């Protein structure tokens, strides 16, 4: 018996790439999704209630993937509009492409007070959410880890010099990225989650020519180092370089731009809930990015 499922939506970048590959290999199976690789690309087939991301192929209905005849190592062919093996067919014929990006900020609408308010809300969410002591998400703002583990210690050593100065040391930071990327265990190492949060902020303010110049340099550095991290992290970092982020991050910047505090709280909570530590690590990157923007504005005004 063959089980048939329909895919209702595919991220635009994956829609373009799926036409050039012939086989999916299953690497992880969870209750609400399964991750696949094709070459060095990652694809996530997932339920409609899972957050949309740069890797997503979204089904029309909810299923429990662990109850399917599907396990890591299984191979699925791409035949016409179907991703299939002898047991399962995922039909993508009617899938609609979607993107996960956000409108860029107008720097004329931002001042130090508005940025400080944004930083305060993110910091409050980090402190509220960081209860398990896992990851790097609150190492810099809240002394909860006693003692720090080796990953946390290294992260603090790398980032503290930038936290302690108003001058943005772009050359030093691009070198520091070499040690941040891939830092930590798991499918998405903490250092990568931090970088995604940071990149999202810098892109949000990239209408400013100076910030855009720095963004280009940082993105080039990250892209050159993608080989150092996991296939899952590589997918999300590649998306960030292309200006594509998880749905909750996009929602946050939409709320930030519109000064909708209720929606900001809701989206920050949603980000924080991602994974065991990934969300809080991402929030730490967002907070770090906001602080850097504040430093840039101070320099520009002097």
TrEMBL record:
InterPro entries: AllH-like (IPR021530). It holds the Pfam family AllH. This is DUF2877 domain-containing protein.
């Amino acid at each position: 018996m063959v089980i048939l499922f329909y895919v209702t939506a595919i991220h635009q970048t994956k829609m373009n790439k799926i036409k050039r590959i012939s086989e999916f290999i299953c690497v992880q199976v969870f209750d609400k999704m399964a991750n696949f690789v094709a070459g060095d690309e990652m694809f996530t087939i997932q339920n409609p209630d899972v957050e949309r991301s740069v890797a997503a192929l979204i089904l029309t209905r909810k299923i429990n993937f662990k109850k399917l005849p599907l396990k890591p190592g299984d191979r699925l062919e791409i035949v016409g509009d179907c991703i299939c093996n002898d047991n399962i067919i995922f039909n993508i014929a009617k899938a609609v492409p979607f993107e996960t990006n956000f409108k860029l900020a107008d720097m004329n609408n931002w001042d130090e007070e508005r940025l400080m308010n944004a930083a305060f809300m993110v910091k409050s969410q980090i402190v509220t959410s960081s209860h398990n002591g896992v990851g790097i998400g609150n190492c810099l703002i809240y002394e909860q880890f006693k003692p720090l583990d080796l990953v946390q210690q290294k992260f603090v050593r790398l980032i503290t010099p930038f936290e302690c100065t108003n001058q943005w040391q772009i050359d030093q930071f691009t070198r520091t990225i070499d040690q941040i990327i891939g830092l930590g265990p798991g499918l998405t190492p903490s250092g990568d989650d931090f970088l995604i949060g940071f990149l999202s902020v810098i892109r949000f303010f990239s209408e400013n020519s100076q910030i855009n110049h720095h963004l280009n340099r940082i993105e080039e550095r990250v892209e050159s180092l993608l080989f150092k991290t996991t296939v899952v992290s590589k997918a999300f970092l590649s998306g960030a370089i292309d200006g594509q982020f998880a749905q909750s991050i996009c929602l946050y910047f939409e709320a930030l731009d519109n000064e909708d505090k209720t929606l900001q709280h809701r989206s920050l909570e949603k980000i924080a809930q991602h994974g065991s530590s990934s969300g809080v690590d991402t929030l730490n990157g967002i907070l770090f990015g906001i602080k850097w923007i504040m430093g840039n504005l101070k320099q520009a005004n002097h």
